[in-house]
Amino acid sequence: MTLLPQRGGPLAGVRVLEITKVWAGPYAGKLLAFLGAEVIKVESRSNLDEMRAYGGVDINSAPYFLSINQEVQSVQVNMKSDEGMALLRDMIAKSDIVIDNLRPGAMERLGLGYEDVRAIRPDIIQVSVKMYGTDGPLGYQTGYAPCFAALGGLSYLVGHEGETPRGMNIRYGDSTVGASAAFAAIAALHHRASTGEGQFVDVSAVETLSSMVGDSLFAHAMTGVAPQADGNAHPDMAPHGCYPCAGGEWLSIAVASEDEWQALGRVLGAGALVGDTRFAELSARLANRAALDTALAELTAGHEASGLAETLRAAGVPAFRSMSSLDLVSDDFLWASGAYRMVTDARGETRPVIGPGWRMSPDEATIERGAPLLGEHNDHVYREILGLSQDRLDELIARAIVD
After folding, report:
1. Is 176 helix (H, G, I), strand (E, B) or coil?
2. Which of 196, 263, 267, 342 is the most exposed place for a label (fewest CB within 10 A)?
3. What is the rounded average pLDDT of the residues 264-276?
4. Is there a single domain that holds both residue 185 and residue 252?
5. Are residues 19 and 97 in the same domain?
6. Above 90 in pLDDT, residue 188?
7. Is there a contact between 51 and 60 (Cβ–Cβ < 8 Å)?
8. pLDDT tier for residue 151 given thresholds of 50, 70 and 90
9. Mean pLDDT of all residues in 175-193
10. CA nearest 245: which of 322, 159, 318?
11. What is the pTM of this model?
């Protein structure tokens, strides 16, 4: 047996069993792994995570899977067999947290509802991620990230005034829900450390996304006006938006005071614009926002975005070039700060990944292992954690119990 290296981190010693697919559940597992937890993903060749198939490549090279499963282990078990389920229950007995995002009722049909896993380990923490949670009149429904954002009220608010709602990026819903699940799991660990009690954590994806709407959720009750999509507009700042620059680039500007407004006019040589009665005061700029944005777009269009942004900031105006994905992956600051990490998989292939959005001292977890090959950690889980002999493991593989 080859012992896995100790990675450190605040969750070192915590074992997470991840019975998840696609994005939200695996994202939660990845965040816990980034904090040092030992995260074991339960898989099988006959019931693959869809992410292993996306991208038209072999199951160990799919881009989506590689991007979301760093520092996660993979163990194969055939959950359609009684013997496989017995092995899975043995894994649960050795785990602190079980995360699932299977369809509503699936865990219960497998005999892995909360009361079932409590019978295996009384202080277990079970985190269940469902579209509407596990109970209530809509608890039977399931869906993907665009559904979460639409039902949670976010999609309706994304876009520009008078246009069709634009919706949310497919990853936003899943990643937000996954982060919420990881946060709840850590809170449950704290509760267990204080009381000795495990918990069932019922994560509703729709409710999580609704919480991201903020004050818009109650605006109608307070004002009598239903919130609508308003692009980059801000209720108390103008100008506040994204303006075109040379070469197809864009510049984000946010003006929060009269001094900043005056400084913007000086940099752009727009004294007439600043003195225009439509824009001279904040209330007027807010009332004439569309005309203001049009006028500013004409003034910024001939400038190089980074240079203009730097000049504006030097004058006291918050302004930054809007970064594309290509800009981000080539940004020296992000590389130097550790936003990206280089990871290597079992085949020796090295690639950059997006690391955690935090830095911890003195005990940050090591992040250097890429997404696992299917079943890469069978030996570790079955032999080291469960204590099976090599002959027994070979027999399970031969009979497709380890599938």
Report:
1. helix
2. 196
3. 93
4. no
5. yes
6. yes
7. no
8. confident
9. 95
10. 322
11. 0.90
For residue 232, being part of any structural domain is answered with: no
pLDDT tens, residue by residue, 33-67: 999 999 999 999 988 998 998 876 789 989 889 99
Q: In a 3-state reduction of DSSP, which class is residue 273?
A: helix
Eight-state DSSP code of residue 247 = G
Q: Judge if 171 and 245 occupy the same domain.
A: no
Per the listing, tokens 């006028």 go with: 295
Choose among 9, 58, 61, 76: nearest CA to 38. Answer: 9
pLDDT tens for 106-116 read 999 999 999 99
pLDDT at 158 over 70: yes
pLDDT digits (tens, 9 = 90+) for 192-206: 999 999 999 999 988
- Residue 43 contacts residue 117 (beta carbons within 8 Å): no
What residues form DSSP beta bridges with 75?
42
Q: Are 46 and 80 in contact (CB under 8 A)?
A: yes
Same-domain check for residues 115 and 190: yes
CATH of the domain at 261: 3.30.1540.10
DSSP structural state of residue 91: H
Angle at alpha carbon of residue 78, lines to 31 and 59, rounded to 5°: 60
Beta strands in 160-290 (DSSP E): 199-204, 240-244, 250-254
Among candidate residues 26, 126, 41, the one with its CA nearest the CA of residue 76 = 41
Task: Identify the pLDDT of residue 213.
Answer: 82
My answer on whether 205 and 253 are in the same domain is no
Is the pLDDT score of 1 beyond 70? Answer: no
Do both 207 and 147 map to the same domain?
Answer: yes
- In DSSP terms, which residues pair with 340 in a beta bridge? 354
Distances in whole angstroms, Cα of residue 354 to Cα of each of 23, 30, 343, 362, 372: 15, 11, 10, 21, 16
In this structure, the answer to whether residues 321 and 348 fall within a common structural domain is: no
Residue 247 lies in a domain: yes
Tokens linked to 230: 């308003």
pLDDT of residue 53: 86
- pLDDT, position 365: 94
Q: At what angle do helices 258-268 and 289-300 cross, to 10 degrees?
A: 40
79 within a domain of the structure (yes/no): yes
- 137, 37: one domain: yes
Q: Could you list the residue range(s) of the whole structural domain that residue 183 is in?
A: 15-212+338-398
Residue count (the chain): 403
| CB-neighbour burial class of residue 161 (10 A; exposed 0-12, middle 13-18, buried 19+) | exposed
Contact indicator for 230, 160 with CB cutoff of 8 Å = yes
